[in-house]
TrEMBL record:
This is Calcium-transporting ATPase. Belongs to the cation transport ATPase (P-type) (TC 3.A.3) family. It comes from Rhizophagus clarus. Residues 44-127 form the Cation-transporting P-type ATPase N-terminal domain. Its main location: membrane.
Length: 1041
C-alpha cells in the first residue's frame, strides 16, 4: 500500500492499517524507492522529511543508542522492535554443504553407478564361486577381490571429488570473510559512532565519506559535492552527483556503490536481504549448474560402453551355450541336468566377467585426478577454481567477453604524457629527464597547484594498502608529484586554501585560491605577483580557452598568441586520439581587492597556462601477448566496458582486440538493434562501450545460442547475471564485489587478464589428459574383452587365459596408475597453437579410434598367436607346469604391450614424436617405473594369488621386446593416410561464426563501397553534397575505427 496523494492533513496511511505497525512505512514500501530508483514514489510518500518522520528518527540526533532497551530486563537488547520489523543488515549464511551431501552429489555420475552395479554383481558371483562345491581345494578364495577393488576405486573417486569441492568452498569463504565485516560511521544519540555494518539499522543516520563502500540503501539528507560510483551496482559508468530531489538531483544511495568525492549523510531505508545489494546476492543463490561439455560426452560414452559390454556378454553367453550343447551332442555322452546347470552357471559367470572387464573403471579416476591436479596448480597461476568442472569447460572456450578497467588495464590512472612548462615528455620513462630540464619556478607552482587544488588524500584502501583515495584524475596527479619525493601533507599543512570552487560539470573546472606567504616549504615560496593565487585545473579546451598567457621553457610568462595556442590544441588532439584523459593546469595571481570581490563563480579570466598532462589507465603487462595468444588459440576476444567509445576503441586497438573489420559501438545504439541486426553485428562486435549489464547478458545468451562456449569476466555487482549465465565466469579477487565472486566459477586472484590464458591452457590440458587416458583405457579394455572372449571360446573348459586377479591388476591398478600418469602432464604453449574443439565433436576422435583399433588388433593378434604358437616358440610341453608358464608369458606380454602403448598415448594426434617433453613429465616416468617394478614382483613372487610362475631371462627378454613393438606399430598407424576420410570427421575444430580473414575481406568491400559513394557524392549536385559527404566520412571513420 502506498501513501495517498494530496491529503497532507491526514496520516500517511489509514490508521486502521497502521494500528499494529510500529512504523509508518513497511519494508516493502521503502524497497520500492530504490529498486528501481523511483523519485515519483518518493514525492508521493511526502519526500525525505516524511520518510524520516515515518522511521521515528531526528536527523539532527539520530536514533537513540538504547532505543527499546529495558534496563529491568537483563535479556533486553536495543533496537529489537526496529530489527524485528525491518530486519538486520546480515544475509542468511549460505548453509555449507556437509561432506556427506557432497559425497552423495559426487556419486550421481552414470559411470560410477554403472561401475557400482558391475562391482556388486562381480562380488556376489565371486563369493558364490569361492564357497561353491566346485571351488578347487587348496586354492585361495579370491573371487571377492575383483568386486571389492572396483568398489574401492569408486569410493576413492567419490571421496576425492567431495573433499576437493569441500576444500574449494572453504577456501572461497575464507577469501570473502575478511571483506564482509567492517565498520562504518553513524550518528546516534547526537554523536558520531563507529559501528559494524552488521549492526546498522533502518532509520540510522549514516556518514558518507570518500572511499566508503555503502553497505545499505539510503536517502540523501545533506552533504557537499557528494559523488557516487554506482558502476558495480547498476553498470552506470559515469559518477553520479547526489543531492536533494527538489534540486533535481539523485537522492538515492544504493548499497554496493562507492563514495568518490564530497561528504554527506543519508537516512538508512533498507538493510540485509531487502537492500539492493542483498537482493542481488540472494538471487544468485538460486539456479543449478549446467552439465559441462565433457560431462555430457562422458555420460554418453558410459551408456555406449554399457550397451557394448552387455552386447558382447550376450554374444559370448549364446556362443558358449551353443558350443557346450554341440560338443556334448557330438561326444555321444550327453550330460545330466545337474552337470548342465553347473556349466550354465560357469558360462554366466564368464559373461558377467566380460561386462566387468568392459567397464572403464579408471575413467572417473582419470577425470578426477586431472581436475584436482589442474585446480591445485591453477591456484599458483592466480586462478582459484570454485567450480571444478569450469576448469575443463574453459579448455574449449571459443569466446571471451572481458571488462576493460582493472582486467585489461591496471585500474590506476597514471600521468603518461605531458607538455608542462613547454617541455614535453612522451612516456613515463622520460618524466625524470623532464624534471631536470624544467625551470624550478615553474616546477614549484606546478607542484603547489597539484597538491592544493585537490580533494584526494592518502589512506588505507579496502584491501588495507596505503594509496590515494578520491577522484582518479587527482590521484594520478598526486602520484605524479609523489614520484619526485614531494610530501603533499607537508604542503597542505603549511598552506590552507582561502577559497575552494569544487569541480562542477557545468564549467568542468576546479579552482582553489590560497593566500601567498613566505612561510612554509619551498613549494610555497614560488614567485608571486599578487597577494593570492588561484590554481585551476580542468577540461583542456575549457581551461585553455580562459588562458591569456603561458609559461615558456625558461620559466617566463609569455603572451599566448594564436601560434602557441594552436600548438597546445594539436597536443590536446594527439592526447585524446591516444585515449588519454587530457587535463590543463593553470594559475593566476590576484590582489586582496580582487579576492574580496569574488562571488559564487571562480575567477577564470586571464589565466597563465602551466601546460597539459595526458592521463591513462595503462594496459596491464602481458595483455597484448595474451590477446594474441587467444587469437592463435581460436578464441574471439570482446571488450565490454562502461567507458566512452573513443577511450574503449583506443585501448582495444592498443591491446590488439579491435582489428580490421571489427565493429565497435556504444550500448544505447546496441540496445536499439533488431534481432536480425544483432545476428549481423555480434559476430563482428569487438568493442561495446557505455554498456549496461543487460548488454553483456544479451551478448552471452546470443553466443551460447549459436554454439559458442563463453567465458565472461566481471568485477561488479551488476556483472552477476552475466557471470552466472556464462559457461565460465571469471571474477576479480581484488577489485571484485562479493556478488561477482559468488556468481563466478573461477576467481582471478590477481585481477589479471593474462591469468585467463593460463586457465585456457590448463583447461585444454585437462581435456587432452582425459582423451589420452581414454585412448589407453579403451585399447586395454577392447584387448582384454576380445582376448577373454576368444580364449574362453577356444578353451575346452571355457576359461579365459587371463585369471580374475590378473585382470584386476590390468584393469584396476594399471588403469589407476595410468590415470595418474596421463592426468598430471603439465600444459605446454603448444596447446594454444590450435583451435578449440567443437562442442559437438566426439570425445574419441577419428585419429584416436585409428590408434585404439590398430593397437587392439595388433595386441589381440599377438596374444592369440602366443596362445596357439607359444609352446613351439618357447619349447613348452603340454604339462600342467608348462601351461602355467605359457599363461604367465601371455600375461607378461599383455602387460608390457600396455606399458609401451602408454607412451604412444602421450599424443592423441598424428604427431610422430611421442617422446617430446617426456622428461618434463616426472609423474609419468615414476608411474612407468612403479608399473614395471610391480609387474616384475607379481611374476617372480605372485605365485598362487596371481596364478603366475617365475620366468627365465630369455622369456623376460622376448616378452618385453614383443611389448616394445607397440611403439613402432603406433608409428606405422600414424603414417596411415586419411585420404578417404571426410573432412567433417577429421576436423573436429570449432567453426567460428566469422573468421578473421572474412572480417578483413568484409572491411575491404565496405571501404571500396564507401569510397565509391564519396566519388559519386562529389559528382552530384552541390545542394546536398556537403551533408552527404559528412555522412559518408562519418561512416568511413566508424568502419576504420
Amino acid at each position: 500500500m502506498t501513501p495517498r496523494e494530496n491529503q497532507e492533513n491526514e496520516p500517511l496511511l489509514g490508521e486502521e492499517s497502521r494500528e499494529n505497525k510500529p512504523f509508518k512505512f513497511t519494508p516493502e514500501e521503502l524497497t520500492q524507492l530504490v529498486d528501481p530508483k523511483n523519485p515519483d514514489l518518493l514525492k508521493k510518500y511526502g519526500g525525505t522529511e516524511k520518510i524520516v518522520e515515518g522511521l521515528r528518527v531526528d536527523p539532527a540526533v539520530g536514533i537513540s543508542s538504547d532505543e527499546g532497551l529495558d534496563t529491568n530486563n537483563p535479556k533486553s537488547k536495543p533496537f529489537q522492535e526496529r530489527q524485528e520489523y525491518f530486519g538486520r543488515n546480515v544475509l542468511p549464511e549460505v548453509k555449507q554443504r556437509s561432506l556427506l551431501s557432497l559425497i552423495w552429489e559426487a556419486y550421481q555420475d552414470r559411470i560410477l553407478i554403472l561401475l557400482s552395479i558391475a562391482a556388486l554383481i562381480s562380488l556376489i558371483v565371486g563369493i558364490h564361486e569361492d564357497y561353491s562345491p566346485r571351488h578347487p581345494k587348496g586354492e585361495s578364495r579370491v573371487g571377492w577381490v575383483d568386486g571389492t577393488a572396483i568398489i574401492v576405486a569408486v569410493a576413492a573417486v567419490v571421496l576425492t571429488n567431495a573433499i576437493n569441492d569441500y576444500q574449494k568452498e572453504k577456501q572461497f569463504r575464507k577469501l570473502n570473510a575478511k571483506k564482509e565485516d567492517r565498520v562504518v560511521k553513524l550518528f546516534r544519540s547526537g554523536r558520531e559512532q563507529l559501528i559494524s555494518i552488521h549492526d546498522v539499522n533502518v532509520g540510522d543516520i549514516l556518514f558518507l565519506e570518500p572511499g566508503d563502500i555503502v553497505p545499505v540503501d539510503g536517502i540523501f539528507l545533506w552533504g557537499h559535492n557528494l559523488v557516487c560510483d554506482e558502476s558495480s551496482a547498476t553498470g552506470e559508468s559515469d559518477p553520479i552527483k547526489k543531492g536533494d530531489l527538489e534540486k533535481n538531483l539523485d537522492p538515492f544511495i544504493l548499497s554496493g556503490s562507492k563514495i568518490l568525492d564530497g561528504n554527506g549523510r543519508c537516512v538508512v531505508i533498507a538493510v540485509g536481504t531487502r537492500s539492493f545489494f542483498g537482493k542481488t546476492m540472494m538471487a544468485l543463490r538460486d539456479g543449478e549448474n549446467e552439465d559441462t561439455p565433457l560431462q555430457i560426452k562422458l555420460d554418453a560414452l558410459a551408456e555406449q560402453i554399457a550397451k557394448l559390454g552387455v552386447s558382447i556378454a550376450l554374444i559370448m553367453l549364446i556362443t558358449l551355450i551353443i558350443k557346450y550343447f554341440v560338443t556334448a551332442a557330438i561326444s555321444g555322452n550327453f550330460p545330466d541336468t545337474e552337470e548342465i546347470a553347473t556349466h550354465m552357471i560357469l558360462i554366466v559367470i564368464q559373461a558377467i566377467t566380460i561386462v566387468v572387464v568392459a567397464v572403464p573403471e579408471g575413467l572417473p579416476m582419470a577425470v578426477t585426478l586431472s581436475l584436482a591436479y589442474a585446480t591445485t596448480k591453477m591456484l599458483k597461476d592466480n586462478n582459484l577454481v570454485r567450480v571444478l568442472s569450469a576448469c575443463e569447460t574453459m579448455g574449449n572456450a571459443t569466446a571471451v567477453c572481458s571488462d576493460k578497467t582493472g582486467t585489461l588495464t591496471q585500474n590506476r590512472m597514471t600521468v603518461v604524457r605531458g607538455l608542462l612548462g613547454f617541455k614535453r615528455f612522451d612516456d613515463e620513462e622520460q618524466i625524470s629527464d623532464w624534471r631536470k630540464k624544467i625551470a624550478s619556478s615553474t616546477y614549484d607552482i606546478l607542484v603547489q597547484g597539484i597538491v592544493l587544488n585537490s580533494t584526494a588524500f592518502e589512506d588505507k584502501d579496502e584491501n588495507g594498502n596505503i594509496d590515494f583515495i578520491g577522484s582518479k584524475t587527482e590521484c594520478a596527479l598526486l602520484d605524479f608529484v609523489k614520484s619526485f619525493g614531494v610530501d603533499y601533507k607537508e604542503i597542505r599543512s603549511a598552506i590552507k586554501p582561502a577559497r575552494v570552487y569544487p569541480f562542477a560539470s557545468e564549467r568542468k573546472t576546479m579552482t582553489t585560491i590560497i593566500k601567498l606567504s613566505s612561510a612554509g616549504p619551498s613549494h610555497g615560496k614560488a614567485p608571486a605577483t599578487g597577494d593570492y593565487r588561484s590554481h585551476v585545473k580542468g577540461a583542456s579546451e575549457i581551461v585553455l580557452g580562459h588562458c591569456s598567457h603561458y609559461i615558456d621553457a625558461e620559466g617566463k610568462v609569455q603572451e599566448l598568441d594564436d601560434n602557441i595556442r594552436q600548438q597546445y590544441k594539436m597536443n590536446i588532439v594527439n592526447f585524446t586520439t591516444d585515449a588519454l584523459r587530457t587535463i590543463c593546469l593553470a594559475y593566476r595571481d590576484i590582489t586582496t581587492d580582487d579576492f574580496n570581490k569574488l562571488g559564487d563563480e571562480p575567477p577564470l579570466n586571464g589565466l597563465i597556462c602551466l601546460g597539459l598532462v595526458g592521463i591513462q589507465d595503462p594496459l596491464r603487462p602481458g595483455v597484448k601477448e595474451s590477446v594474441e595468444a587467444f587469437r592463435k588459440a581460436g578464441v574471439f576476444v570482446r571488450m565490454i566496458t562502461g567507458d566512452n567509445v573513443v577511450t574503449a576503441r583506443a585501448i582495444a586497438r592498443d591491446a590488439g582486440i579491435l582489428t580490421k573489420g571489427g565493429i565497435s559501438m556504444e550500448g544505447p545504439e546496441f540496445r536499439k538493434l533488431s534481432a536480425e541486426k544483432l545476428d549481423e553485428t555480434i559476430p563482428r562486435l569487438q568493442v561495446l562501450a557505455r554498456s549496461s549489464p543487460t548488454d553483456k547478458t544479451i551478448i552471452v545468451k546470443w553466443l551460447k545460442k549459436n554454439g559458442e562456449v563463453v567465458a565472461v569476466t566481471g568485477d561488479g555487482t551488476n556483472d552477476g547475471p552475466a557471470l552466472k549465465l556464462a559457461d565460465v565466469g571469471f571474477s576479480m579477487g581484488i577489485a571484485g564485489t562479493e556478488v561477482a565472486k559468488e556468481a563466478s566459477s573461477i576467481i582471478l586472484m590477481d585481477d589479471n587478464f593474462s591469468s585467463i590464458v593460463k586457465a585456457l591452457k590448463w583447461g585444454r590440458a585437462v581435456n587432452d589428459s582425459v582423451r589420452k587416458f581414454l585412448q589407453f583405457q579403451l585399447t586395454v579394455n577392447i584387448t582384454a574383452v576380445v582376448l577373454s572372449f576368444a580364449s574362453a571360446v577356444m578353451s575346452d573348459e571355457s576359461e579365459s587365459i587371463l585369471t580374475a586377479v590378473q585382470l584386476l591388476w590390468v584393469n584396476l591398478i594399471m588403469d589407476t596408475l595410468a590415470a595418474l600418469a596421463l592426468a598430471t602432464e603439465p600444459p605446454t604453449d603448444d596447446l594454444l597453437n590450435r583451435r578449440p574443439t567443437s562442442k559437438n565433436a566426439s570425445l574419441i576422435s577419428y585419429r584416436m579410434w585409428k590408434m585404439i583399433l590398430g593397437q587392439a588388433i595388433f595386441q589381440i593378434a599377438i596374444n592369440i598367436s602366443l596362445l596357439q604358437l607359444g609352446p613351439a616358440i618357447f619349447h613348452l610341453s603340454d604339462s600342467k607346469e608348462d601351461l602355467a608358464v605359457l599363461r604367465t608369458l601371455i600375461f607378461n606380454t599383455f602387460v608390457f604391450l600396455q606399458v609401451f602403448n602408454e607412451i604412444n598415448c602421450l599424443r592423441i594426434d598424428d604427431s610422430l614424436n611421442v617422446f617430446r617433453n617426456i622428461f618434463n613429465n616426472h609423474v609419468f616416468l615414476i608411474v612407468q617405473f612403479v608399473v614395471i617394478l610391480g609387474q616384475f614382483l607379481i611374476v617372480e613372487f605372485g605365485g598362487v594369488a596371481f596364478g603366475t610362475v617365475r620366468l627365465n631371462w630369455y622369456q623376460w627378454l622376448v616378452t618385453v621386446l614383443i611389448g616394445f613393438l607397440s611403439l613402432p606399430i603406433g608409428f606405422i598407424i600414424r603414417l596411415i593416410p586419411n585420404v578417404c576420410i571426410p573432412e567433417s570427421i577429421l576436423n573436429e575444430d570449432h567453426k567460428p561464426i566469422i573468421s578473421q580473414s572474412k572480417m578483413h575481406l568484409g572491411s575491404v568491400f565496405e571501404d571500396v563501397r564507401t569510397e565509391t559513394m564519396i566519388l559519386s557524392a562529389l559528382k552530384g549536385g552541390s545542394k546536398d553534397k556537403k551533408s552527404r559527404l559528412n555522412e559518408l566520412v562519418r561512416r568511413k571513420r566508424k568502419s576504420t575505427a
